[in-house]
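[step 3/7] fold_predict: job queued, chain A
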Amino acid sequence: MSSVVLLLSMISQGRAAVVKSENHPIDLTKMARKWNLEQAKKAAFRGEVTTALEALKQLANDGIHSAKASLANILAFRGYWDECISLAGDYLEHASLNDYQYGAKDMVLLLSLSGDKTRQWDVVLEYCVRALRSLETRAGMATEINCLDIIGDRNSYARTLKEDGRLHLSNLTTYALSKGLNSHTFYSQYYQPITLENQISQREQYYKNSVENLPLLRPDLTDSPDEAAAHRFHLAVYACQYQDALYEFLHHPDKYNHFQFKDALVVSRILCHSKQFGEAWQILYDWLPQWYPMQHSTRVAPMELLFDILLRPLMTPERCEEVLFCPKATDLWKRKKTLTSKPNATRMEKQEKIPALKIRSFIQAVEPVTKPVTKFGGQPTWLSEPQWPISRTLQKPMRFICQIQLEPKVFGQMNGRIAYLFVSDWYEEQPTRFWEAHSGDNAVIIQPGRTYLGLYDTTSTGPSLEREGLPCEYLVDFESIEEQSKPVSFEGNEFSAEQFQLISQDMACNKVGGVPFYWNTIEYPDDSGDWKLLLQLSEDVPFPLNCCLGLCYAFVSKDGYKGAYFCQSG
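[step 4/7] structure written:
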């Protein structure tokens, strides 16, 4: 029987033994306990909080110090700060050098946060002193290191870990002695605040050169536009080009396969900096199933949500509970988000599927968006000579609503690249016919494309979206979806009540591309059969939009040269 099989057999039978190796002995009793600890942690990952708490408490009472750290994770999200002090402090007092590689920094931060909440700085300081004394007297440094990917001298690596541990504990000691003064400075050592000013000109130039010369520098990404977009996102974050980073993340059609939870954290931090807390939380909540702990970590929850000075304001008690109960991945290879599939009728499954981009949320821009991307409000990013349409009724410039990037994945290959939507205002004393296609009181202009046939001015700026009297501008967070190929309406639909309800839940949404869902009868701008849905919007948007209490529809011709717009009342 091989040594590996024998080892597994003895653990499964609950037998304890000590097997000598060339480096140092392995205690099989501790390995069996670790297996139990892993089961408790996996219960926490599955969102089975009650089970995980009971198991971790029992293991902590049995003297398993890693269980104390994991237990402190859960209790921190529930606000039991007194218990967190004792658990984190005891863990640090008994921490090995290997622990300073994986989990000790979390407990340092948790002690500091618990001190902020309870003001028990004397207790925190006492635990710091104990942990420092223990760290200084650690024996057999190199024998405590069990990382398998160490390159170089094991003793040198152990000394580095010891210095790192001393630094973290010294920082916490200084913070405790100050009784929590300058907390922003303390936490910024671990989670840097976002700055929207690019203070490093070399990075900015590096970013511009990298993006402009991406096909030359990374030819391997030429045939992988999704991976190229993810690469541009990381370049933008590195260079503090946060507006570009937001766009690359929010518009990525396959983001769950090309980004990780840590990327969603960056996006949420940018949104928190601009006070868009609701949107920031929505991003985090959607990505919680993607979170996974690092190997050997004591974490059972994303502790950075509590530690990060920008994300911390999001974490209300209710949201903390949502974090704990949300099922999460257990490792990198299981992080793919599981999408819940809805049952479709057999007849619908046989139909051709049409791609679309569902608008999940509108994200207020942190600065003016000047690139040719999908956005709402602000000023148009013209690709050629400006053509600002003039309202036929008012003889005034129409209001700019949005510009839509004509993504080949959604619209196929066409001549146009950007579609610009303009709609006239409506005044009681001077009503316009903004809801009618070809009325002259709305316009969809395509660039590059044919010259707009209505009245227009060559000015590049004009009236745009406003919210509470102030200009507003939004990027959008898309979700790639597929829809059945036939349009649906309330009137004359051929589906059963159950099928119609299922279809309407999917199709009656704000989206780019796809298939129209009509309030009234099925209609198009004309009978040519030459139209694709460009945009479907309701009044469920964060800015004033006159949809006649129904839905509005913008269309683009299949060749990408012209567009049209109309509304239907609910």
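[step 5/7] annotate
Residues 228 and 323 are 31 Å apart (CA to CA).
Residues 154-177 form the longest helix (24 residues).
exit 0
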